[in-house]
């Protein structure tokens, strides 16, 4: 009856058919819901505010000193990192090139039998000490630029239970001959200096030598000190083998190394071996054992302390230190809010029936989910990174000004932590979005993202589980992503409490990769279900 | 390609329920096609299949010759409202249309145009959560018109509309059809279909039980019955019976005439000089026609499932 009317032809319209309109639509959808915008801003604010305010007490952290005075106490190594540098040294000057060779015949020690504590004026009297050698007690030979803590050095040493090592400039540690030292099984050690290059050797018989390494010490003075040293860090026994609880007992320890066949070449003729305590720890030690004893060609050197980098929660730290992770406690709160928003970014569409409008406008469902993922991922990345930047930069400055030595600070590491943490928030949000797309119901999806992401984190870091279980959780669950918060390296030659928030079982990028695998699998599954199911 | 909706042999089962059982029809351009049927007839499922939201077990639905998922910028091919309540309450009407427009590469200017045409200008910046059902219907119409599509599909657009809105909607549907668009409107309000639709697709139990113009359907249901009031009842009966009609006395001075159109009844009586005081052609309402059809649906059920009614 109306067949005479010409079929309607719409005017030609501009506008593409690509991915960009989808992104634009999803972004418009996101930004036009005030509740979501407010929530994500609150998430970012939580990250920033908690990060800045929580660790900042505004007080100096070392008694009556000012913040700057506190920081001036911390020795720093050639690389600028904070170091422990306390040991007993028996040395002679060495002008120009030369070498030192010794035979080590024993390494023994004593560990305080009383209550744990720092070695200091109130250390238990020697009578309360029991024989014992801590694993990283060290006795050996050293070439050092000076006896000022933090000087460049290289050393060959025997250790309590890690065999012969060559260590230099605090952070570097190279394993050499294994096994303990004893009179029946002595160790020969040698260091040679040639310009800025120090070469370490070891030998089990004094005839056959093995080169351990030749290392370059930048800016070594013309005249250095070469000699024998002994040091012994605190004994650490964890009370509870949990991750987050650094509870354990610390006990003072001293070690004594016995040397003979000492051969210094290149030194001044007729030089004398002068004993000297280096650094703050041994200087405070009240016991009589510290020092150098010499009988004929036999030297015994007794010392206490450690030579090595300062690590977060290291048991030998005598200064207040902090890390960037101290300012990232708010990330957990921000993450919680962000993943709830991300899950609801799709579940509310199901709740309102809006998903049908969405899918009618964008029939290619995989692309639609991808667009949602990009929008929620970018929004959480940008806001998350910005908030983490405020927390880390402002927080660590405030901590620094109040006298906390912030380990591994500086722009390169700060930028990495900021971007990695932003990426972690984004990937976790994409995972949450995928779970929302799979479950289609807000309550179920929010419960699921909490169980999948938040619960493992709480179990992993709260210390309610044994360390091995916590470690496993932080390796294999999406909570592995929190590894991005790490800014300080772990040193196996330094005893410390290597657990959250400063340390995770996986490296930062590996942890992020674990989270990415979860997000990718969930996103793929969600896309498959979205394509397959009726809307 | 002509602007059409072409539904062919749709079958879909939800668990033990056979929702669609060979649904087939074509929506032509230039007219309003009413899609009616009782609850559970499969109207909504059919519309979801047309929009590519539900996948049929068998059969196909084509928009101007293409399956929905293959449409690029689909809202410029077909505009539809399925559920007027499907809105995010916290988002304003304009922002709702804005994201839809952006998904099709359209700008905010187009949004303002469709808002004006739907009569929503004053409410555009209010949150959709506070809208009456009638305003939501207008918002749905505006959304459907975003891409200026040649094919339109509205599910129960009169629901919740005030009388003024119903008049507006009826006029708008006619206007869209007059522009040459294909318009499919589902409704359970038969009276609205009588005034709005040119063509009807009647669904029952997952298939089409009538596919006809509104005029034909009413004529078929009316059956050419004429009521006559006259003082000369016997004479009139004789004249009309001779003319080939079947005549029955229904009262002291009323007759029911079938088999002869009202005009011919008047002509025969005038020729014979038989007087009458009133004559009326009985017109079945669409409602009556619909009741008759859906009663018959039971019979259709007994027939082979593959039957297609055109």
Strand content of chain A: 15-25%
Our count of helices of chain B gives 10
Helix content of chain A: 25-40%
Broad structural category of chain B: alpha/beta
* DSSP helical segment count of chain A: 11
Strand order of the largest sheet of chain B: 6-7-8-3-9-10
Mean pLDDT across every amino acid position of chain B: 87
* Alpha-carbon distance between the two ends of chain A: 37 Å
**Going by CATH, what is the homologous superfamily of the largest domain in chain B?**
P-loop containing nucleotide triphosphate hydrolases
Q: Briefly, what CATH class of the largest domain in chain B?
A: Alpha Beta
Question: What's the number of structural domains of chain B?
Answer: 2
Contiguous low-pLDDT stretches of chain B (5 residues minimum) are 298-310
- Count the domains of chain A: 2
Q: What's the helix and strand layout?
A:
The complex is a heterodimer of chains A (535) and B (310).
Chain A: H1 19-31, H2 34-53, H3 67-72, E1 83-85, E2 87-112, E3 129-131, E4 138-144, E5 153-159, E6 164-168, E7 172-175, E8 187-194, E9 197-203, E10 210-216, E11 223-231, E12 235-238, E13 248-251, E14 253-267, E15 274-278, H4 280-284, E16 291-295, E17 298-303, E18 307-309, E19 321-322, H5 329-352, H6 354-361, H7 365-401, E20 405-406, H8 411-439, H9 442-462, H10 467-476, H11 508-532
Helix pairs in contact in A: 1-7, 2-5, 2-7, 5-6, 5-7, 5-8, 5-9, 7-8, 7-11, 8-9, 8-11, 9-10
Chain B: E1 5-14, E2 17-27, E3 32-36, H1 43-50, E4 58-63, E5 66-67, E6 78-81, H2 93-103, H3 108-117, H4 133-145, E7 151-155, H5 163-178, E8 182-186, H6 190-196, E9 199-204, E10 207-213, H7 214-222, E11 225-229, H8 233-242, E12 246-249, E13 254-258, H9 262-271, E14 278-281, H10 286-302
Parallel strand pairs in B: 3-8, 3-9, 6-7, 7-8
Antiparallel strand pairs in B: 1-2, 1-4, 4-5, 9-10, 11-13, 11-14, 12-13
Helix pairs in contact in B: 2-3, 3-4, 7-10
């Amino acid at each position: 009856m109306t067949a005479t009317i010409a079929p309607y032809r719409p005017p030609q319209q501009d506008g593409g058919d690509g991915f960009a309109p989808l992104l634009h639509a999803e972004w418009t959808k996101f930004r036009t819901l005030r509740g979501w915008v407010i929530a994500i801003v609150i998430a970012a604010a939580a990250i920033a505010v908690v990060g800045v305010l929580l660790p900042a007490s505004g007080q100096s952290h070392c008694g009556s000193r000012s913040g700057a005075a506190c920081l001036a106490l911390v020795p720093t190594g050639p690389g600028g990192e904070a170091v422990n540098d306390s040991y007993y040294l028996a040395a002679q000057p060495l002008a120009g090139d030369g070498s030192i060779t010794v035979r080590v015949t024993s390494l023994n020690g004593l560990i305080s039998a009383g209550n744990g504590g720092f070695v200091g004026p109130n250390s238990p009297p020697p009578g309360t000490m029991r024989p014992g050698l801590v694993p990283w007690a060290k006795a050996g030979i050293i070439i050092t630029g000076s006896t000022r803590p933090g000087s460049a050095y290289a050393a060959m040493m025997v250790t309590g239970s890690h065999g012969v090592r060559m260590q230099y400039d605090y952070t570097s540690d190279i394993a050499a001959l294994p096994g303990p030292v004893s009179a029946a099984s002595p160790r020969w050690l040698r260091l040679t200096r040639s310009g800025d290059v120090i070469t370490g050797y070891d030998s089990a018989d004094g005839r056959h030598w093995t080169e351990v390494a030749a290392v370059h010490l930048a800016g070594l003075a013309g005249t250095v000190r070469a000699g024998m040293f002994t040091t012994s860090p605190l004994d650490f026994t964890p009370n509870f083998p949990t991750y987050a609880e650094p509870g354990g007992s610390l006990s003072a320890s001293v070690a004594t190394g016995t040397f003979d066949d000492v051969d210094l070449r290149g030194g001044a003729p007729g030089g004398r071996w002068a004993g000297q305590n280096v650094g703050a720890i041994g200087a405070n030690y009240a016991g009589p054992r510290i020092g150098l004893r010499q009988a004929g060609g036999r030297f015994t050197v007794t010392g206490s302390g450690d030579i090595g980098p300062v690590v977060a929660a290291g048991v030998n730290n005598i200064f207040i230190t902090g890390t960037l992770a101290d300012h990232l406690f708010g990330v957990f709160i921000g993450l919680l809010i962000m993943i709830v928003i991300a899950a609801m970014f799709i579940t509310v569409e199901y709740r309102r029936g809006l998903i049908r409008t969405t899918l009618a406008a964008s029939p290619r469902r995989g692309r639609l989910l991808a667009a949602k993922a990009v929008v929620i991922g970018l929004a959480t990345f940008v806001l998350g990174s910005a908030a983490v930047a405020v927390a880390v930069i402002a927080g660590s400055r405030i901590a620094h000004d109040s006298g906390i030595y912030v380990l591994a600070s500086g722009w390169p590491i700060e930028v990495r932590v900021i971007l990695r943490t932003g990426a972690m928030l984004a990937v976790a949000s994409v995972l949450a979005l995928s779970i929302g797309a799979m479950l289609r119901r807000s309550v179920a999806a929010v419960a699921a993202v909490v169980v999948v992401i938040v619960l493992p984190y709480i179990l992993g870091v709260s210390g309610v589980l044994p360390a091995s279980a916590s470690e496993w959780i932080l390796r294999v669950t999406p909570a592995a992503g929190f590894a991005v918060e790490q800014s300080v390296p772990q040193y196996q030659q330094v005893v410390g409490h290597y657990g959250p928030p400063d340390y995770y079982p996986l490296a930062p990028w590996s942890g992020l990769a674990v989270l990415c695998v979860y997000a990718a699998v969930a996103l793929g599954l969600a896309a498959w279900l979205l394509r397959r199911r009726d809307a | 390609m002509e602007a059409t909706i072409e539904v062919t042999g749709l079958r879909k089962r939800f668990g033990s329920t056979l929702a669609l059982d060979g649904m087939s029809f074509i929506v032509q351009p230039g007219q309003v096609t009413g899609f009616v049927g009782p609850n559970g007839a499969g109207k909504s499922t059919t519309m979801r299949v047309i929009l590519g939201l539900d996948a049929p077990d068998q059969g196909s639905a084509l928009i101007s010759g293409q399956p929905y998922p293959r449409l690029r910028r689909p809202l410029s091919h077909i505009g539809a409202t399925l559920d007027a309540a499907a809105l995010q309450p916290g988002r304003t009407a304009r922002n709702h249309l804005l994201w839809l427009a952006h998904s099709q590469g359209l700008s905010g200017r187009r949004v303002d145009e469709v808002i004006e045409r739907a009569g929503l200008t004053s409410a555009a910046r209010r949150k959709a959560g506070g809208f009456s059902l009638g305003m939501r219907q207008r918002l749905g119409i505006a959304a459907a018109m975003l891409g200026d599509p040649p094919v339109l599909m509205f599910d129960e657009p009169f629901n919740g509309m005030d009388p003024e809105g119903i008049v507006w909607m009826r006029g708008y549907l006619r206007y869209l059809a007059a522009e040459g668009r294909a318009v499919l409107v589902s409704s359970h309000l038969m009276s609205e279909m009588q005034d709005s639709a040119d063509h009807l697709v009647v669904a029952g139990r997952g298939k089409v039980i009538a596919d006809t113009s509104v005029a034909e359907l009413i004529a078929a249901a009316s059956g050419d019955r004429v009521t006559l009031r006259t003082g000369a009842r016997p004479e009139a009966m004789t004249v009309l019976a001779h003319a080939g009609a079947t005549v029955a006395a229904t009262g002291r001075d009323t007759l029911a005439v079938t088999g002869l159109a009202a005009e011919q009844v008047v002509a025969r009586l005038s020729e014979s000089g038989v007087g009458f005081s009133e004559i009326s052609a009985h017109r079945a309402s669409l409602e009556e026609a619909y009741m008759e059809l859906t009663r018959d649906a039971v019979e259709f059920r007994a027939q082979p499932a593959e039957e297609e009614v055109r």
